Amino acid sequence: MIRRNWIALLLLAVGGGLLCAVTPETAANPWPAIRRARVERLLPAAMQAAGADAWVVICRENANDPLALHVGGENAGGQAAFLFFLKDGRVASLAITPPGEATALQEVGLHDAYRVLARDESLWSAVAAALHERGATVVAVNSSARAVADGLSHTQRRELEAALGAGWPGRLVSSEELVITWLAVKLPEEIAIMRDAARLTERLLLEAYAIVAPGQTTDADVARFLKGRMRELGVGDAWAPDQNPNVNSGPDRGHSHSTGKIIMPGDVIQIDFGILVHGVWCS
Fold first, then answer.
1. What is the SS3 assignment for 174-207?
2. Fewer C-beta neighbours within 10 Å, C or N terminus of the chain?
């Protein structure tokens, strides 16, 4: 009883108004404005640090680049290209898109310029032409041992290299340093959202511990409770849904999926749990 009262007091302290701070699915999404600010304010320094004067991201339906959401290609149907050029300390962006999604993409308004492909026109030729026209010499592409910077398939890279031609004076480099540098820095408005997400995660964990009845509640019961609260609040999984949350109790197991193991008196309960807000930020 003392333990449950202590948890109840903590739940109140964590904050009754917090659910309004981390907005559910129905609330306005701040990501479009923050995404634009990240491109304008953070990408130039990342490209400079990587020594790249151009960055090419290819997006497509069903096998999209991990960074599609960050460059405006999350709704790509046909194959599209998003090019970023560094000049005089600022980045200019160009979206090369099939006609079917061109209008909607332009309405999003993230990019400085848009090039709509003719129905029989090669995307790769258009990308190569843009790189030639801008005089790009060091072009970063998403090929890396790190998954977040490894969205360009082998076939796509081969197509790009063929379109650029043997006479192209520039070179392709991995975008790994660019991507890690860019994603590592958060804007103040992002930090505020992440802090709210962390506070909400703490609140949910305390709620989960409060439902445990030793000798009755299972690890899977706790996991199901947290999943239910996530659905109620309209937040997503910070990583693979099947692995979030992982709830493990007792001395004979570590980081693994939740099972029907009953939580016994004296057990330590380990919960690996995180939420995703607005589809971008995690706790």
1. ECHHHHHHHHHCCCHHHHHHHHHHHHHHHHHHHH
2. N
Of 64, 63, 46, nearest in space to 55 by CA? 46
User: Predicted confidence band at 15 (pLDDT cuts at 50, 70, 90)?
Assistant: very low
pLDDT of residue 249: 95
Looking at domain 2-27+187-282, which CATH architecture does it have?
Alpha-Beta Complex (3.90)
When the pLDDT of each residue in the chain is averaged and rounded to a whole number, the result is 89
Contact (CB, 8 A) for 274 and 244: yes
Type of residue at 93: S
């340093």: which residue's tokens? 177
* Peptide bond connecting 245 to the previous residue in cis, omega within 30 degrees of 0: yes
**Residue 248: in which H helix or E strand, if any?**
strand 246-249
Cis preceding-peptide flag for 241 (omega within 30 of 0): no
Q: What one-letter code names the amino acid at 83?
A: L
Q: What 8-state DSSP symbol labels residue 118?
A: P
Q: What angle do CA 172, 176, 178 make, to 5 degrees?
A: 90
DSSP string, 49-77: HHT-SEEEEEE-SSS--TTHHHHT-TT--
Topology annotation, domain 43-184 = Creatine Amidinohydrolase; Chain A, domain 1 (3.40.350)
Q: What is the largest CA-CA distance in the chain?
A: 77
Tell me the two tokens of residue 230. Answer: 């996530």
Q: What angle do helix axes 43-50 and 31-41 make, rounded to 10 degrees?
A: 40
3-state secondary structure of 148: helix
